[in-house]
Specification:
By secondary structure, the protein is an alpha/beta fold. It has 2 domains: 266 residues, Rossmann fold (3-Layer(aba) Sandwich); 186 residues, 3-Layer(aba) Sandwich (Rossmann fold), CATH 3.40.50. It is built from 19 helices and 20 strands. A 9-stranded mixed beta sheet has the order 3-4-5-2-1-8-9-13-14, with helices on both faces. Strands 17-16-15-18-19-20 form a 6-stranded parallel beta sheet, with helices on both faces. It has a 3-stranded antiparallel beta sheet with strand order 10-12-11. A hairpin with a 2-residue loop joins β6 and β7. The structure holds adenosine-5'-diphosphate (ADP) and alpha-D-glucopyranose. Alpha-D-glucopyranose binds next to α1.
C-alpha cells in the first residue's frame, strides 16, 4: 500500500508540538509493516539551519497556482528512515518560525499552507507516485482534500486515491476571509454551507472533515468528545454526520528516542530494575532550574508544555498558593501565549525556591524534566492525545492529569487496594480538584515502597507505535475498500 503523509511539522526537522513527534515516527513503523510511505512538509528556514543533508529531486517544477504560472523545488532527506520531501518556496517558508513569530501568526498562513498542500499533490504527479491513501494532518494540510475534490477531481492520476484526515487538535481550524479562495486557486462555489464556509469564513479543516474518505483523531475518547457541543468547536454537527467513518487511534511513543536506559540527553541512565540514575537526574534537574537540592525528599513536579489555554495553566497558576505549602517543587518548560508566560513569571518571583521556569523550546531540557521529575502534571482542559504523559511514564515520572481525551485513555488512577494504576486523575476543571489529585500523589509518595510499586507500573506501560501502526494499517485497508469501520480503540486498561 502506498501512503503519503502531508504535515506542517515533522520531527526532527521542525517541531512545535506532538504533531511533529507523530509524523516523525509513525511512518517508520508503517514502513516496518511493509507499507510504502512518503512524507511531505515545507522547507522552513529552521530545516535549512539545522543542516540536514538534502538532495534536490526536482528543480523549479512548473506549477499552475491560483491562476498563474509558478515554480517550486523539491528536496529529499533520508534522515528519518522513510523519504521526506520538502516543498521549497522561499517567499513562503524561508522565515523564522513555522507559523509566525512572537508578534503573532503570519498573515498569509492560508496561502502558505494551501500552496504547500497543492504543491505536494503536483509533486506526487511529477514523481509518478499515486498513493492509495493521502493522509493529511490538521488544517494546514486538510485543505489538500479540497484540491483533490475540485482541481484534481477528474484527474485520472488520483482516480483511485482515497484519503484520511487526522484531527490532532480541533480547536485550530485555519479560518480565513472569503476572498482567500481566489488567492489559493479554489473555486468560489466551495463557499457554501455544504462546502468550506463556516460562520462567514473559509475553514480549511472543514475540507478534511467533509471530503476525507475517513477521519481519525488521536485517542478514542477525543473522537467521542468532538461530537459534542462542548468539545466540537462548532464542527460537532458535521462530525456527528460523518460518525460512521470517524474513529480514534491512540498515538504511540518512539521508545528509540524516549527511553531513560539509552537517552544521551539525561544526566544518568536508569531502568525500572536499576533506578539509581533517576536520583542523579533529579539533582541535575533541580540544578538546571536553580532549585535547592538539599531537601532530597521534596518531590519535583515537572511540566513540558505549549503555553496555550488548552493546557490548563490558568488553573495551575490559581492553584499554586495551595500547592507549594504541601511541600513540592515545580518546574515548567514552555513557550507560547504572552499572557500565560507573564503570569508564570510573576508566580516564579513569588515562589523562587519552589518554582523553576524556563521560557524556551529546548528538547534537551524536556528530556531532563521527564527523567528528573517524580511527578508530571497535565491539567489540560482538553487533550486530543497528549504524548508527554506517555514519555513521563517511561521515565518513572508519575502523571497527574485531568480526565479528558487521550489523558483519560492512557492514565488509570492508582488503586492502593490492588496496587494497579499508573497515575492520578481528576475530573473537574478546578484548582481544588487539581490540588486534591496532587495530595493523593503526595500521600502515596510518603510511602516509599508503595510509590516504588507505582513507578514500576508506570515504567512497564507499553505505548509503543507497533500497536498503533497496526491499527492504522487496518484503517488504511478499510479506507481503500471504502468500508465503514468500527475501529474504535478504547482505553488501554
Ligand atoms: P501538544 O502537541 O498539544 O503540544 P503533546 O503532549 O502531544 O502536546 O506533545 C508535545 C511535544 O512537544 C512533546 O514532544 C514535548 O516534549 C514537546 N514540547 C512541548 N513544549 C516544549 C518545549 N518548550 N521545549 C521542548 N519540547 C517541548
Ligand atoms: C496535538 C494535541 C496533542 C496530541 C498531538 C499529537 O497537538 O494537542 O494532544 O498529542 O497533537 O497527536
Amino acid at each position: 500500500m502506498k501512503i503519503v503523509f502531508l504535515s506542517s511539522e515533522v520531527a526532527p526537522f521542525a517541531k512545535t508540538g506532538g504533531l511533529a513527534d507523530v509524523t516523525g515516527s509513525l511512518p517508520r513503523f508503517l514502513a516496518k509493516l511493509g507499507l510504502e510511505v512518503r512524507i511531505f512538509m515545507p522547507l522552513y528556514r529552521e530545516v535549512q539551519k539545522k543542516g540536514f543533508p538534502l538532495l534536490k529531486v526536482a528543480d523549479r517544477l512548473p506549477f499552475h497556482w491560483a491562476g498563474q504560472e509558478d515554480v517550486f523545488t523539491v528536496w529529499e532527506s533520508a534522515e528519518s528512515g522513510v523519504p521526506v520531501y520538502f516543498i521549497d518556496k522561499p517567499a513562503f517558508y524561508d522565515r523564522d518560525g513555522l507559523y509566525g513569530t512572537a508578534a503573532g501568526d503570519y498573515k498569509d498562513n492560508g496561502q502558505r499552507f494551501a500552496f504547500f498542500s497543492q504543491a505536494s499533490l503536483a509533486a506526487l504527479k511529477a514523481m509518478d507516485f499515486a498513493p492509495d491513501v493521502i493522509h493529511v494532518h490538521d488544517w494546514q494540510s486538510a485543505i489538500a482534500l479540497a484540491y483533490l475534490k475540485s482541481i484534481y477531481g477528474q484527474d485520472p492520476f488520483f482516480q483511485t486515491t482515497k484519503s484520511l484526515c487526522t484531527i490532532h487538535n480541533l480547536a485550530y481550524q485555519g479560518l480565513f476571509e472569503r476572498d482567500i479562495l481566489k488567492t489559493i486557486g479554489l473555486p468560489e462555489s466551495l463557499f457554501d454551507m455544504d462546502g468550506l464556509e463556516f460562520f462567514g469564513k473559509v475553514n480549511f479543516l472543514k475540507a478534511g472533515i467533509l471530503y476525507a474518505t475517513a477521519i481519525s483523531t488521536v485517542s478514542y475518547r477525543y473522537s467521542c468528545e468532538i461530537q459534542t457541543p462542548e468539545f466540537g468547536c462548532g464542527l460537532d454537527g458535521l462530525l456527528r454526520k460523518r460518525s460512521d467513518v470517524l474513529t480514534g487511534i491512540l498515538n504511540g511513543v518512539d521508545y528509540a528516542a524516549w527511553d531513560p536506559a539509552k537517552d544521551s540527553l539525561i544526566a544518568a541512565p536508569f531502568t525500572a530494575s536499576d533506578p539509581k540514575g533517576k536520583e542523579v537526574c533529579k539533582k541535575d534537574l533541580q540544578t538546571a532550574f536553580g532549585l535547592p537540592t538539599a531537601k532530597k525528599d521534596l518531590p519535583v513536579i515537572g511540566m513540558v508544555s505549549r503555553l496555550a489555554g488548552q493546557k490548563g495553566l490558568d488553573m495551575l497558576i490559581e492553584a499554586l498558593g495551595g500547592l507549594f505549602p504541601l511541600g513540592v517543587q515545580l518546574v515548567i518548560l514552555g513557550t507560547g501565549e504572552a499572557e500565560i508566560q507573564e503570569s508564570l513569571e510573576t508566580a516564579r518571583r513569588r515562589f523562587p525556591s519552589f518554582f523553576g521556569l524556563k521560557i524556551a523550546f529546548d528538547d534537551r531540557l524536556a528530556h531532563k524534566i521527564y527523567a528528573g521529575s517524580d511527578m508530571f502534571l497535565m491539567p489540560s482542559r482538553y487533550e486530543p492525545c497528549g504524548l508527554t504523559q506517555m514519555y513521563s511514564l517511561k521515565y518513572g515520572a508519575i502523571p497527574i492529569v485531568r480526565a479528558t481525551g487521550g489523558l483519560d485513555d492512557s492514565i488509570r488512577e492508582y488503586d492502593a487496594a490492588d496496587g494497579r494504576g499508573n497515575g492520578f486523575k481528576f475530573e473537574a476543571c478546578s484548582p481544588p480538584a487539581l490540588i486534591q489529585a496532587v495530595q493523593r500523589a503526595l500521600k502515596l509518595y510518603a510511602h516509599k515502597r508503595a510509590w516504588a510499586g507505582l513507578v514500576q507500573n508506570a515504567m512497564a506501560c507499553d505505548f509503543s507505535w507497533e500497536r498503533a501502526a497496526q491499527e492504522y494499517v487496518l484503517l488504511y485497508q478499510n479506507i481503500r475498500e471504502e468500508r465503514t469501520f468500527p475501529v474504535s480503540v478504547r482505553s488501554r486498561f
